TrEMBL record:
GO biological process: aerobic electron transport chain
Organism: Muricoccus nepalensis
Membrane topology: Multi-pass membrane protein
Record protein name field: Cytochrome c oxidase subunit 3 family protein
Lineage: Bacteria, Pseudomonadati, Pseudomonadota, Alphaproteobacteria, Acetobacterales
Subcellular location: Cell membrane; Membrane
Membrane-spanning intervals of the chain: 21-44, 64-83, 95-113, 125-148, 155-172, 187-206
Amino acid sequence: MSGEAEALREPWASLRRQREAASFGMWLFLGSEALLFGGLILAFSVNRLLHPDAFAGAGHETNVVYGTVNTVVLLTSSLAMAVGAEAARAGLRELALLGLSLTLALAVAFLVIKGFEWSADIDEGLFPGQAFKLAPPAAGIFFAFYWFMTGLHGLHVTAGISVIAWITWQAWRGERPLESPAFEAAALYWHLVDIVWVFLYPLLYLGGRS
């Protein structure tokens, strides 16, 4: 049985139609995710306009080194994911597995770095609450957004790791043919994770340093 025949699932009559359906479904899901993060970014921007000085001061307290390193890590993972997905579509098994594995390694590195950053933030009193070190009340609003948006993004990274790890494991064992639309769908999701971070990085790390 050919790889295309193994990848084909009911009720689709052709792999092309199955791939188009998977892509369309993923784009609908990504649209809902974009609305979620878009609403958060809009709310953040409105509060920043209302409290420019407090938000600038709070933004200066974020660790731009951690943020910049993680930006490089995540953008590199997006490149690796694109290579892995395209290699899978072209039937290049070793290159596909390499790209997917590198994506996983960089995604885990992103979470580890983020963990160190969060730990340092807590030690420095940057978690809203009784131990919060910044005086302006609006600074607490900034860090409420900071923790919620980076935490939500971290959950999306974790979900992406789970999905990519699963399809990579299946591909390595030969249980999922490289022609499967799952690789392209996973790549679309991972690119959304990267794009969201591209917006969060300047909002949270560069706003207080402009």
